[in-house]
Write a structure and sequence with these properties.
single chain; 3 domains
Length: 327
């Protein structure tokens, strides 16, 4: 959109938010000031911030909290999607955060959506776990999906054939790569293909290796893999990979991943691994703690990726939240 179009849409959104607040909440919007906000639009007073999210709201809570703390202690987040997940994550903060679901022209208090039940792989899929391990990859099950990773990078996945329904292993990094690999290497035994990819990828997934797509992808999962090898580096006697709060949809995007650590006193901590400055990682980590019934949270990242907003948010969580890094 052009600058004029962006400005016009911002004005429309501000008017829409003001009407919702006035007509449905009985708020005197004359005491509020419109402020430009990257999430959509915002109306601000000394007591509260109202933000109307324009578009995908799934990762809006962290940025909204970071933005709102500059103005007022109370945040009202208005969204028309993912409101249940956002309300659940907001419940992990001690500060005043209200999530509202926008349905047509009505504002409804969002109801926290429960976490989904854990999913186990089908028996047909689980039989391939030993094949993946035999090829030298690390078998991993996430939300019931069986995959093989090499130091945190997925190189194969168990899928059902779309025509026969029969379970099989596909080799490749992501759906498109698996499809291309199958076309190019269709005559090659699958175990041989996996071993070849394991060797190729493994040579690049090492600290200090020259830049390569294989060590550029999923850096947060490489960090988790490293921590799983030596839990004591983070102060744990054991560390176990667990499902994230929401299923990862794209292998090639860098998104946080999760483990649960146990210390020598038996206390459990939700450990979230992230790469890059991610303003939504604290709500994500709080959600992981709620999901796995942990009273503590540890966010593992590069030191340069932890900014002041992260520490402000961490100080407002109900679960004790700390930051750490692997040397």
């Amino acid at each position: 959109m052009s600058d004029n179009e962006v400005e016009r849409r911002s004005r429309l959104l501000s008017a829409k938010l003001a009407a919702l607040m006035s007509q449905q909440m009985g708020i005197d919007v004359s005491t509020y000031t419109a402020e430009p906000c990257g999430l959509g639009t915002a109306l601000v007073s000394d007591e509260a911030v109202w933000i109307l999210v324009d578009g995908d709201a799934s990762r809006s809570l962290g940025p909204a909290i970071a933005w709102a703390t500059k103005f007022a202690p109370s945040l009202h987040l208005v969204v028309d999607n993912h409101s249940g997940v956002l309300a659940r994550r907001a419940s992990g903060f001690a500060t005043s955060i209200s999530v509202w679901h926008l349905e047509d022209t009505r504002l409804l208090a969002a109801i926290a959506e429960p976490h989904r039940d854990a999913v186990t792989p089908s028996a047909a899929h689980a039989t391939f776990i030993s094949d993946i391990a035999s090829a030298g990859a690390e078998p991993l099950v996430e939300w019931g999906v069986v995959v093989g990773e090499v130091r945190g990078l997925e190189i194969c996945r168990v899928v059902d054939d779309e025509h026969t329904g029969e379970a099989r292993i596909e080799v490749g990094i992501g759906a498109h790569d698996r499809e291309t690999f199958a076309l190019v290497h269709q005559e090659r035994p699958i175990d041989e293909s996996m071993r070849s990819v394991v060797d190729t990828v493994g040579a690049h997934r090492v600290k200090g290796a020259p830049f390569h797509p294989y060590n550029h992808l999923a850096p947060e999962r490489f960090t988790r893999w490293s921590a799983l090898q030596t839990p004591s580096a983070l102060g744990f006697v054991s560390l176990t990979q667990v499902d994230p709060p929401e299923m990862r949809t794209n292998v090639k995007d860098s998104v946080p991943c999760v483990a649960v650590g146990v210390d020598d006193s038996g206390n459990t901590t939700a450990v979230v691994f992230v790469h890059g400055i991610d303003l939504d990682v604290v709500p994500f980590a709080v959600d992981a703690a709620l999901q796995h019934s942990c009273a503590q949270v540890m966010i593992v990242s590069r030191p340069q990726d932890v900014v002041a907003s992260h520490r402000v948010m961490a100080g407002a969580t109900l679960a004790a939240t700390t930051f750490s890094s692997l040397s």
